Prior knowledge:
Layout: H1 10-22, H2 36-54, H3 63-71
Amino acid sequence: MTITIENASKELYTAIKSLAKIDNAKCKVQKPKLTKFEKEILKAKAELEKERAAGTLKTYTNVAEFRKAIDNGEL
């Protein structure tokens, strides 16, 4: 028999795992896979963090400064 429980807390998993041991059953955790979009967002975030740590990330103090950079072709 297979039972599926979604969005369970760690405490619930621990309790169910203890119950499964009584019957010599197995408990498996299957974490949801990331979508392509989520992977792209995480990759972009990692790149930004890397640039920030290296001091090469270009930031702007206000919208006018950002707009000026766009108009000058810096972006």
